[in-house]
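Example record for the data management plan.
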Amino acid sequence: MQAWGGLVFPNPETSLNSKLADEPYNNNITGFKNERVDELCDLYDKTFEQAKRIRIIQEIDSIYSDIHPVAWGIARNYERLLFWNKFGYPEYMVSRYGGDYRSIFSYWWLDPEKEKALKEAKANGTSLPQGELNVTFWPDYLKSNK
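Corresponding structural encoding:
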């Protein structure tokens, strides 16, 4: 896992612009250089329509990911976790003030009952009950941009 600093709105220039590739002490930690990405970074800075900015970022992500396989993510004041449901954990262990994904190693524990249920579900080809799934940003964004 790598961690880049970021802004409220992504700005690829500080992490992927060629002019930073050979400079020390910046976010272009892979030394990435690509003319098309440089063009897109310039275009991104001059584009104010959010839908166009998203398409620019998607193209940049695609170019970079073809060259350096990555799974991009954005961390906000919440964490997204995907895990096998065999653990117990405190209700508020991942929060803005109380920890992050690394807290799992300190605060989670193996729950024997959940582990047994998971093994049985996998062996039988069945599913465990799904907890609440709350996805708000993209559906709201898509509704407002139709």
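Summary line stored alongside the record: The chain has a mean pLDDT of 79.
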